[in-house]
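Annotated sample (chain length 714).
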Amino acid sequence: MAENRGVAHLVCGRRAKWLVLALWLVLLFLTAPFAQKLTDAQDNDAASWLPGSAESTQVLEISQDFRPEQIPAVVVYARDAGLTAEDRARITEDAAQLGQLTDHGIRGAETRGPVYDRPADPRAAQIYVPITMDEQGWERIAPAVDSIRDVVGEGGAGMAVHITGPGGTSADFSEAFEGIDSTLLLAAMGVVVVMLLVTYRSPTLLVVPVLAVVAALFTAQALIYFLAEHAGLTVNGQSAGILTVLVFGAGTDYALLLVARYREELRRHEDRHEAMARALHRAGPAVLASGATVVLSMLMLLFAEMNSTRGLGPVAAIGVAVALLAMMTLFPALLVICGRWIFWPVIPHFGSSDPTEHGVWARTGRGIARRPRMVWAVTALVLAVCSLGLIQLRAEGIGNADAFTGKPDSITGQEVSAKYFPAGSGDPLVVIADQARAGQVKRAVAGTEGVVPTSLGLPAGTKPVHDGQVLFEATMTDPADSEAAKQTVERVRDAVHEIPDADAQVGGGTAALLDMDKATTHDNLVIIPLVLAVVLLILGALLRALIAPLLLVGTVILSFAAALGLSALAFRHLFDYAGESTDFPLFVFVFLVALGIDYNIFLTTRIREEAARQGTRQGVVTGLAATGSVITSAGLVLAGTFAALATLPMVAFAEIGFAVALGVLLDTFIVRSVLVTSLFLDIGPKIWWPHRLARESHPTLSKEPAQPVESTET
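Output written by the structure step:
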């Protein structure tokens, strides 16, 4: 029993369990108030999302020397039959009132307009209202747009009034993110509660993992808040939302695995403290390896060029690390404190038989064992066919018009504006150049295809010269978020970069989108191999083998391709989404590989444990029988928590949630239970090469399940 007298008893000993509980209560008392402040610490300004070294980011930083960072809200008025005299009088009055606004960063004195679509018989008008940006990003814009709305109203009597442009779109993004933490928390908690109730069939047991996960989430949020405030960690709305999903999904997975092993040991040990110590000793390495895989995989995001992606790495890693700590300390302590009654009404009594030995997964394992080669070949072929859906993938970015699951006012206004004005108005190019070459640069920009030649000018409130440089703007003929506009940016950059000693740089919203696309392409090529290397190294260290880790990584890649292919088909033909964001494949890969590999770790560590006692082939069947139910439950919980992202009215989040949920289900029901099982059965002991287990001789597989190992404890 010395093997269980170590770290495990420091968590679940007769006195230690109370100490663990007390420490967590003190920790929660100290950190809970700060967890609620994480929203205040978010940095949602443009620079927190853009690639740090990109030309558009440099222009954004330099332009702040000419003027405060600002974003224009564009008020659009339109009447197809032509604006009446009353309409024009109202528009003029609105412009005067907007010029007096100063709240929420509105720079009313720099309001421009009204600008009409044509001098005679105008049908539409625009008023440009600049809003100062700060670290709050779009959260600062939303109340400013509300103030503008209070002035201009909703339209009526045949004249449409919309607020669009970057300011209007940012306000709608802010509304979409409003309450993201509470929305995802409630959605994820609801999924976890339902799945735990179905899995455990115990209304009392489900309370314990939920309490432990919530404690982990609050602690992680508080820790991240401190790091954001005092250590420069960047947190934005995206990373804060994903943090909630990761902590709930990963934490519940670890709880399910530990409870399953605890149930087994309760049937073998009368003392619940000893049962938990055994469970921690045997399940601990798998849980720790799974947690380490996720944490290290998330930290690989630090190599990303995209600031938003790089910032997500440490946020997600901290969340999973805290969840792992809570599930290995607080959760087992709570289970031991509660005793066996917590499993009511299905209480695992001492000496009772283990139902998994004769359950559906035991029968599945024996069925696969009859013809394993045919099973894995057919399964791999089906997954390969599913991956053909990748030809439908359009991970080229999502325009503003397609970014929402609904159609907010800014998108309607964008369509109305494009009908009467140059499509790129409201989100111009920003060009910075040396003062001595300003004339040449302006002529090059004006002569570039896709630029409105007469649109070049100095924005209101902007210094004409700073430190020998000038800044001016130019309107494009195409919508700012379109592929044609990105090509215009490329042409403008090529034109101005050729001018000697001009030191010209081109930025603005479209340039930022272009630079983000390029940065994401780089991140895909760099981070995906790094994550695969991390997974391979951890599997190799855990299993002390080479062949098994290589096969497991191969099955994960195949599963990822199939999930992405099926998702692309669903997005095109079921949900009718226009496309995917450029970082969609990367996020889906990182979450699927880092989290999906958990199930292979849970299964293969149990197989290895059983193989040491009864041989590899029998160990495969026993391992599948012992872990099948818990891994299936864990997969359903994790898929459900990621599906909670679909509650947000944003296409990018809905797509990530759908693809990860689908991939987790594939891993759970097909890859882990069928493909991995059949491969291990077909290859046999050689799967453990070069470990000594590869030299075992167990040529046949018994048709009867192995009997549970009896405890030798006295």
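Annotation: DSSP finds 22 helices and eight strands in the chain.
Annotation: The radius of gyration is 30 Å.
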